[in-house]
Amino acid sequence: DELLLSSANNISCKYAKSVWDTQATTTAVGATNRTISYWCFSPGRAIQELIRQNVRCIILTSGTLYPFEPLEAELNLKFPITLRNPHVINADQLNLSVIPRGPDGVKLNGTYSVRETPAYRNSLGLLLVQLAQVVPAGLLIFFPSYAFMSQCIEFWKNSDTYEKLSRFKQIFIEPREKNQFNKIFNEYRSIACSESSVGAILFSVMRGRVSEGLDLADNTGRGVAILGLPYAPIHDPRVLLKMAYLDEQCVKFKSKFNKDQSQKTLT
């Protein structure tokens, strides 16, 4: 990115270099390529570049900015005016729960090695069948990846779980193809909001199209189930270096960086 690199002539701890071997391309069969990457882990570098261009006002808006103090520390910028609006619904209208075990008693441990097991996938399916019976209108199910979603759906179709789900709600699946998404989502919304229907389930992927930027108000999202977390690969050089950078900043800014900041790095 040109904006980030325009200040890169003075290398600091906010930048990190990484070198690793990659598989050869088809033009060099049997050879090993060495890749050198130069990454910026501090968004404050870009913000300071904007300030040097005499930007008069910077406004950040999002539903996930709070807490503000770690954000200000990472951006290296104080915001004298902040606004934190209340949620559109009251606290007593929302139930947030962590479900540690399925209806059959199987521990719902979503780590990579466990989620490959039939017992885990079967227990997830049993849980979703129960949710489909009690959640009215639209029910959103978020998977960590398209691959895991496809594997679970295939597993449930080979048992009676998928058929049981379809008894209680019409099932829709978020497509990988962008040109098919609007059609699928509009059909889901129509069924979910119809008073004459039993409701609908939309199988979706975290960081996918459903999870970003859509209005899922009222009957389109009466219930949401998140099946595990889409953690970044822990051995990815970018993740390791970002974690090391945040460790340095924790020492520098003490309490300004917290667990929430670490979670954002991994997800």
Automatic annotation (TrEMBL):
InterPro entries: ATP-dep_Helicase_C, DinG/Rad3-like, P-loop_NTPase. It holds the Pfam family Helicase_C_2. GO terms for molecular function: ATP binding; DNA helicase activity; DNA polymerase binding; hydrolase activity, acting on acid anhydrides, in phosphorus-containing anhydrides; nucleic acid binding. Gene3D superfamilies: P-loop containing nucleotide triphosphate hydrolases. GO terms for biological process: negative regulation of DNA recombination; negative regulation of t-circle formation; regulation of double-strand break repair via homologous recombination; telomeric loop disassembly. GO terms for cellular component: nucleus. Residues 146-259 form the ATP-dependent helicase C-terminal domain. Coiled coil: none annotated. This is SJCHGC05649 protein.
